[in-house]
# Entry
Amino acid sequence: MAETAAKSKPKVSKRQRAWTATPQSDKLHALTEAVALVAKTANAKFDETVEVHFNLGINTKQNDQQVRSTVVLPHGSGKSKKVAVIAKGEKIKEAKNAGADETGENDLIEKIAKGWLDFDVLVATPDIMKDVAKLGKTLGPKGLMPNPKTGTVTFDLAKIVKEIKAGRIEFRADQTGNLHVIVGKVSFGPQKLKENAEAVLQAVLAAKPSGVKGTYIRSVTLCSTMGPAIRIQPPAKET
# Structure
């Protein structure tokens, strides 16, 4: 049994062990300190992605305690997103002019139905959603189905396409109440990472479900792809 337990024990990197050994590892940091530490501890040979992780005091089995929303990062995410738009007539032209990577009507619906999924975000106008609905089994499990709650079902195609291209991202808590959101790349520098992280924090606070009782944000950590998890002081007052 002891041998089995030893084999199943997760591996800890040298970088994580080194961080854990420092007095700072148990400290709750202000956001300004946290982004500076992320930049300092990120020493991989590639431009590491930086994420903020939340543990939320929500019961995901309750419909009134789901956390799902969007946020526009002031400095983008550092990742270029491909946007596909399903619309009719002049709305297709509007989407193209706004920078959509792929546009179409029933032809695009059929293309997706046959397995084409070379896009990160799919947007559709309300008047064509009854036809897009047939793609539910294909898009639903991948989280790609257009949804009014995230603004991807709209007639204002110029606005949504430009926002996505500028750094608009969607976030959603998982079944365990954890939430992971990209805030940029290490190369952004502390100030831009801080401003992006602040935008995410405010969006998560604004998305607090009405059914939540007690502490909403239990913990917040910031880390780069290969770096240690740096604990952040949760907001003292929740909305």
Summary: The mean pLDDT is 88. The beta strands are 49-56, 68-72, 83-86, 102-104, 121-124, 168-172, 178-185, 217-224, 230-232. The longest strand covers residues 49-56. Residues 12-77+168-232 form a domain with the Ribulose 1,5 Bisphosphate Carboxylase/Oxygenase fold (CATH 3.30.190.20).
